[in-house]
Specification:
The structure is a single chain. The chain is an all-alpha fold. The chain has one domain (3-82): Helix Hairpins (Orthogonal Bundle), CATH 1.10.287. Helix content is 71%, strand content 0%. The chain has helices spanning 3-11, 20-49, 58-78, 83-100. It binds magnesium ion. Magnesium ion binds at residues 34, 37, 64, 67.
Length: 110
């Protein structure tokens, strides 16, 4: 499945609202919520499993990262952005930083 196919399929499970702003904000909040669920898995892994990689629940990590991906795909669609374009732009940004030796450091536009 490629990025555009995924984005199309994700949209088939999106519950839309008549108010575009409310729909977008619901999705942005959902993205933060799902990112928090990823963080929670790792917090509990550190707290309860002493960060033992053999005990990390990768199936749950996979599920929650999928939820993050779903929100990214739907938010992007709402803003008329193709998921494939997000992926390509991100890889190009990081490739450029690597070539220029700026993968480390701070600032979005380095
Ligand atoms: Mg979730």
């Amino acid at each position: 499945m490629d990025f555009n196919d995924y984005q199309k399929r994700a949209l088939t499970t999106n519950l839309t609202k008549d108010d575009r702003f409310l729909e977008l904000m619901q999705q942005v909040l959902g993205l933060a919520d799902e990112a928090g669920e990823v963080q929670s898995i790792f917090k509990k892994w550190i707290r309860d499993q002493d960060a033992d990689f053999a005990k990390l629940d990768k199936a749950n990590v996979t599920k929650e990262l999928g939820d993050v991906l779903w929100y990214i795909a739907v938010i992007a669609h709402d803003l008329d952005i193709r998921l494939e374009d997000i992926a390509a732009a991100n890889i190009e940004k990081l490739r450029s930083r690597k070539v220029r030796g700026t993968l480390t450091g701070s600032g979005d536009n380095r």
